[in-house]
Amino acid sequence: MKNIIKRSFMILSDFMAIYQFMIDIYEKDWRNGVPAPFFEYALSSDWSDKTMSHRNMIWEADGDIVGFCFYESQLGKAFFSLRSGYEEIASEMIEHAAKALIDKDGNLKLIIFKGQDAVAEAAIDAGFEKTDEYVDMIFDFNKQLDYKLPKGFSFVEPHKLDMAKTLICCWKGFDHEKEGPWDGDLDCGYHLYYSPHATPQYDVAIQNEDGDYVCWAGMWWTPQNHLAYMEPLCTVPEYRKKGLAAAALSEMYRRMKPLGATHMTGGSNSFYSKIGYEPMITWTYWSK
């Protein structure tokens, strides 16, 4: 008989164990939950509110983590990581999310990946209905990714990456300039840079002839899963539609394949399918 207990997540002492748990249960289609760098990237980013992380819940069987229910950035959206063979706790996980992970207005969306059948069934039993879905793509390294860098641009050598230029590129690349210029805060970048499993040596930056960064692709290499977890990817608005993002991902492919990577994450945008990515990860959203 399984001896399963649940307890609150303690961010300072539990993170590394949760990271390893996510490594252990990883599947390329995320059928058991998100990959480990997904959670670490959120915890290390300034857009994520860590003050409510004690509301995340861990389930353990004989000292081993078998389930984790958590939010990514803010209360109001719940994710589920569940070890195969412990599907009986799915209803308890849904119940916890409905009580502890609602936002200040009482709203909650469940994010359930295709293949998380026990979690979906528990959500239906609890009165949730599927409201939306979309599919993220991955690039299979059995294929080749080889888009050339356009004339007038160059890759920045990894050991020469400049944090300020990186953050300016990301500020512009994610269309934040409408909020005003970048505020000059370098610490948010260094906080991410010094995450326990960060691999900034594999990041790719493209600069123009003036040395300004105009395209950026971050890499969280996860060798245990042969996963090249790409996050984030952005291009400064005036440099879009020039082939820079495709060239950046091609350079990333060239760097990661010799290390043993078998696949690289992307997104749902049609850009990815145009350069050879294939549908793999189905996100479904559930609400009451």
From TrEMBL:
It holds the Pfam family Acetyltransf_1. CDD domains: NAT_SF. InterPro entries: Acyl_CoA_acyltransferase, GNAT_dom. GO terms for molecular function: acyltransferase activity, transferring groups other than amino-acyl groups. Residues 153-288 form the N-acetyltransferase domain. This is N-acetyltransferase domain-containing protein.
